Amino acid sequence: MRSLPVPDPGVADQRSATRFLLWLAARIWPTLVGGMVLGIVSFVGQALMPAVLGKAIDAGLVARNTDALVRWGLLLLTLGISQAIVGIVRHRFASFNWLAGAYRTVQLTADQANRLGATLPKQLATGEVVSIGTADINHIGGALDILSRGTGSLFAVLTITAILLTTSVPLGLVVVLGVPVLMTVVAVLIRPLHRRQETYRDQQATLTTRASDIVAGLRVLRGVGGEAVFAARYRAESQTLRHGGVRVARVEALLESTQILMPGIFLVLVTWLGARFALRGEITVGQLVSFYGYTVFLIGPLRMLTEVIDRLTRGHVSARRVVGMLNLRPEIEEPARPVQVPEGAGELVDVESGLAVRPGRLTALAAAAPEDAVAIADRLGRYADSEATLHGVPLRELALGTVRRRIMVADNDARLFSGPLRTELDPHDRADDATIDAALVAASAMDIVEALPGGLDGRVAERGREFSGGQQQRLRLVRALVADPEILILVEPTSAVDAHTEARIARRLGPARRGRTTLVCTTSPLVLDQADHVVFVSDGKAVAEGRHHELLDSEPRYAAVVTRVEEGEA
């Protein structure tokens, strides 16, 4: 995607959308040009068939010349067979162009989503992303698909116009003057149509986001009795979307009727004029039949030309939205010249708070304010820019791939995806059964696997909705342990489990991570008691450290946070 010229970040103007469509077209230019050439051959061949039919009537039937009738009949058959073959190949090219445009857009947006990471949900609504992956790719693919038929239709209209002008100037002028009139009428309708379509598309994205939020928070809504309120809001927004769809449909219906009415007027007018000319002897019977065939055939190309305008405009609107997403920049940028960092265990330091995570040990971080612990985890995982260092090298000077490979931050916002449980716990398919079983035991999650039909091969529903909050938390911990990163940062990994399960996890976590560096952000006494080293953070700074029981005796603020007792209470 680096070859795509883009405007300033966050800006998606008309020019950038045009460049994006041209960039897509350039990637598939052989099939695009091939489809357009085949479209010209196919449509021009169809345009010539009425002329051949007219010649067969005049030279064969009217003149009672059997040889001429056979010759023109064979030529007509040849044109028909050729059109069938060329039409099939053209359709294959057009389908390839549609698929290439649509799914190349999917690849680009998926890669961009991966690059943006945690930045994406902050800058773009869920519904907007879903709409890009559904509606917008269809419109972009359609804009590339229509080019072959549109080019063929244009050449067919030009061919018929030339034939009519050669045979009868008045009939040719009807087409020459009528086509611009039709295009003008369509252009007048297209502009308000696409304004309404863009508004409808925005409303659709908003409603999709609302639906996603409701589904994600359904359990909470039920708990607080908010289902009726949110259902009413969704119903109101849904009705707004419906009214927007009706407004779009009104203009679409008018456009469709115009596409039928205007070519129909051509058909009636040319046939009527041709019949009058034939009665006066100015044209032959065969030419009259040809003119009728031309006008009937013209209905298709003329409608196709209006469809070209419609699809290209839709594709352009969708391209603007795609470019808008592609122009987003991650909060954390790759360094211009990444620095190499030594392999092996090294000290991880958060300079801002003064926290030093010692290699090969289980360190616990107890923060007076939970948001301080989250901020430190973000800085140490380089999800926020900071002066944090590994082996004394600032993380901002390391390649992001290196940081992600060596440091993993596992928090409670991580998602479970649909699919086999084994794949969910080991997405890279690198762990054997013994490793997975050991992680399940350490996270006290064996009961979850035993209860799931199919065990590790059983399927997980979307977002793991069949599991309780505590079960999901334990499965996320299993996934982190199976990954076995050099440095693992866990944010409140036991906040949703009961005390007995928490005690088992606390006892087993250290042995499961023996020899590896682990930082656990928690205020649970059960977990803190099992840590090799505990650091207490207050007001964003590390103010005390030692073993759990030492801090309980020496640091009243720590004791108050851990035991949930306010300072000054007995």
Automatic annotation (TrEMBL):
<dbReference type="Pfam" id="PF00664">
    <property type="entry name" value="ABC_membrane"/>
</dbReference>
<dbReference type="InterPro" id="IPR011527">
    <property type="entry name" value="ABC1_TM_dom"/>
</dbReference>
<feature type="transmembrane region" description="Helical">
    <location>
        <begin position="69"/>
        <end position="89"/>
    </location>
</feature>
<keyword id="KW-1133">Transmembrane helix</keyword>
<feature type="transmembrane region" description="Helical">
    <location>
        <begin position="146"/>
        <end position="165"/>
    </location>
</feature>
<feature type="transmembrane region" description="Helical">
    <location>
        <begin position="20"/>
        <end position="49"/>
    </location>
</feature>
<feature type="transmembrane region" description="Helical">
    <location>
        <begin position="260"/>
        <end position="279"/>
    </location>
</feature>
<keyword id="KW-0812">Transmembrane</keyword>
<dbReference type="InterPro" id="IPR017871">
    <property type="entry name" value="ABC_transporter-like_CS"/>
</dbReference>
<protein>
    <submittedName>
        <fullName>ABC transporter ATP-binding protein</fullName>
    </submittedName>
</protein>
<dbReference type="GO" id="GO:0005524">
    <property type="term" value="F:ATP binding"/>
</dbReference>
<feature type="transmembrane region" description="Helical">
    <location>
        <begin position="171"/>
        <end position="190"/>
    </location>
</feature>
<dbReference type="InterPro" id="IPR003439">
    <property type="entry name" value="ABC_transporter-like_ATP-bd"/>
</dbReference>
<feature type="domain" description="ABC transmembrane type-1">
    <location>
        <begin position="33"/>
        <end position="314"/>
    </location>
</feature>
<feature type="transmembrane region" description="Helical">
    <location>
        <begin position="285"/>
        <end position="305"/>
    </location>
</feature>
<dbReference type="InterPro" id="IPR039421">
    <property type="entry name" value="Type_1_exporter"/>
</dbReference>
<dbReference type="Pfam" id="PF00005">
    <property type="entry name" value="ABC_tran"/>
</dbReference>
<feature type="domain" description="ABC transporter">
    <location>
        <begin position="289"/>
        <end position="564"/>
    </location>
</feature>
<keyword id="KW-0067">ATP-binding</keyword>
<keyword id="KW-0472">Membrane</keyword>
<keyword id="KW-0547">Nucleotide-binding</keyword>
<dbReference type="InterPro" id="IPR036640">
    <property type="entry name" value="ABC1_TM_sf"/>
</dbReference>
<dbReference type="InterPro" id="IPR027417">
    <property type="entry name" value="P-loop_NTPase"/>
</dbReference>
